[in-house]
Amino acid sequence: MRQLSCSFICSKTWDRTSLVFCKISCFFMLSYVLASVARCQPCELAADTWPRRAAQEPPLLLRPSRESAAAVAHPFPIPAAMAMGRPVRVVLDSSVLLDPSARPDCAGEEVAPLRPGAEALLRRLRYSNLGVAICHQEGLPTNESGFLEKTAKLYSFGYIPLTSPSGSNSLNEAMIEWSRTNSCFYVTSGVHEGLLSELQNHNWAVIAMDNDDVIKNSGVLRIGMLQELLITLATSIKKVIGSSSTLVVGYVMKQSREEDFAKRGAFPIYPSKNNLIFVPLSFELPLASQLQEVDLVLHKITDEIINIDPNSSISFPKGISFSPGMSEIIRFVEEHCNFCVIDPFKNIYPLLDRLQIQEILVRLEGLNTEGRPKLRAPCSLKVENFCGSELQKQLTEANLSFPLIVKPRVACGVADAHNMALIFQIEEFSNLSIPLPAILQEYIDHGSKIYKFYAIGDNIFHAIKNSMPNASHLKSSSGGKPLTFNSLKTLPVATKEQQLHNRVQDNKSLDINLVEGAASLLKELLGLTIFGFDVVVQESSGDHVIVDLNYLPSFKEVPDNEAMPAFWDAITQSYKLRKRMMQT
Ligand SMILES: Nc1ncnc2c1ncn2[C@@H]1O[C@H](COP(=O)(O)OP(=O)(O)OP(=O)(O)O)[C@@H](O)[C@H]1O
Ligand SMILES: O=P(O)(O)O[C@H]1[C@H](O)[C@@H](O)[C@H](OP(=O)(O)O)[C@@H](OP(=O)(O)O)[C@H]1O
Ligand SMILES: [Mg+2]
Ligand SMILES: [Mg+2]
């Protein structure tokens, strides 16, 4: 185990544990198309700010558009230049980015708004590991060309103001040069017939968007909306590589989480070292057709919860309403039991319910052995309300004493899942505003140090974070009132002085092997590829208490160069295990 910076420790890699998975059925259309470029005259590259790429990069074939399904019967010759091991460049013509219906703003100022969906596309292409440039034709109004230049700079893309050559339609040297060393796409919303043969000679591939002028079966790749572009690129790259080990991973999660992962390089469209290609599933397109193009889906289903009936948690997903897009995915998976989902929805539902989490954690206590710290769940009690004369009796029967931490039974997916309270005496339950049903947990004095563990496939990492101080520090400031907070936003963590004080007192260390054993058993019990759990060490007893369990956490504290390869490996292994299980 290596001690890494910022109190981060990478623990170990387990043996491949057996996880139950269904078989994946993948279908990819086989064909090669090239298309012509819209009136884009050859150009001089303004500044080749295109990111350098690793030497060995695969070439590209294009998936025929759905209308030209006949192309499947007549696969186009694969140009020699689209040989294995080449970087991929994508040139976006201004016509796909600028909103054609834009009107000057009320002050008469020419504005250059982006077409709907363009900002999301640019944001995703920025972290796609593809070389991207924006181009525009000569004669574009200066406010628009200026806007595009600024946009290219903002996203670290290349910028190509096209200038007309001496009347010829031939591709200019720069574009020809690129196609010698890169596999290139040109995306436009117009098609200029004149350039088609030039492009075929120089191995440019063009994607024409929303254009009916495109001749059918002329090898032109057509998309209807900008939202189709990424999946078109992704499935083309997959086809070109032509290896069953290359997987297209469709992903679904909230935008903030996607951006956090994307900025870490988690979602390359150009394959990662594990041969994984990531593409966002768009809720603006039919989900079934997208799901037929990917090998598996990675999702954080709880990001797509609209609301939960907290009284239905024992029968999840009943009582949960999901976004329409997520509901479509759930339906598709129900109808295609061989489709690979990471992770199966039924494996995640228990982690929405702190009572079920408690029942899972209690099962870990079987790992305990003499002479080692005790691993356990906190003593807990589920309550339907905070009043009732029986409450004190219930607490006693549950072996609970104050202080108590009160958490909603619903663990995540809705805004108030993280509204909590620290209660010091029974009177403080009156008018308590924590969502019901609730879970009352013993509050563990743990010296404001929490160990956040992350099981990412066969790898386990943990980070030490500042946590809530011992109850005595909090009671003094509570003034006889419950201490209410939101664990994601306003967690009352220890002050610097309290942390220093704790460091002096800190005499109970973490038994890493004990927790690793717990993580391994949790992985088998949960059937999850990536999960996180929080461990505190009780100061008085040294007990290792697991207070929380989460599905697909952000593992922000784990350095990217450790986390990303583990992330990709976890996905690949889960997929392979599922395939193997289907073949047996
Ligand atoms: N039983 C406990 N005893 C002492 N401290 C606790 C206990 N339960 C939680 N905490 C403290 O409160 C914090 C939030 O609790 P918890 O992790 O259960 O909330 P959560 O909303 O599930 O957070 P997450 O964002 O990790 O899912 C913990 O990180 C820890 O600092
Ligand atoms: O947003 P909901 O569905 O309520 O669930 C939360 C999880 O419970 C937390 O574990 C996530 O925090 P981490 O990703 O840091 O573990 C937290 O991630 P976030 O802080 O990035 O939103 C949430 O996913
Ligand atoms: Mg937590
Ligand atoms: Mg949690």
UniProtKB/TrEMBL annotation:
> Keyword Transmembrane helix: yes or no?
no
Pfam families recorded? Ins134_P3_kin (PF05770)
What Gene Ontology molecular-function terms does this entry list? ATP binding; inositol-1,3,4-trisphosphate 5-kinase activity; inositol-1,3,4-trisphosphate 6-kinase activity; inositol-3,4,5,6-tetrakisphosphate 1-kinase activity; magnesium ion binding
SUPFAM superfamilies, alphabetically? Glutathione synthetase ATP-binding domain-like
> Which keywords label this protein?
ATP-binding, Kinase, Magnesium, Metal-binding, Nucleotide-binding, Transferase
Instruction: Fetch the Gene3D superfamilies from UniProt.
Output: ATP-grasp fold, B domain
Q: Which cofactor does it need?
A: Mg(2+)
Q: Name one GO cellular component term.
A: cytoplasm
Q: Which reaction equations make up its catalytic activity?
A: 1D-myo-inositol 1,3,4-trisphosphate + ATP = 1D-myo-inositol 1,3,4,5-tetrakisphosphate + ADP + H(+); 1D-myo-inositol 3,4,5,6-tetrakisphosphate + ATP = 1D-myo-inositol 1,3,4,5,6-pentakisphosphate + ADP + H(+); 1D-myo-inositol 1,3,4-trisphosphate + ATP = 1D-myo-inositol 1,3,4,6-tetrakisphosphate + ADP + H(+)
Instruction: Explain the purpose of this protein.
Output: Kinase that can phosphorylate various inositol polyphosphate such as Ins(3,4,5,6)P4 or Ins(1,3,4)P3 and participates in phytic acid biosynthesis in developing seeds. Phytic acid is the primary storage form of phosphorus in cereal grains and other plant seeds.
Annotated protein name in UniProt: Inositol-tetrakisphosphate 1-kinase 6
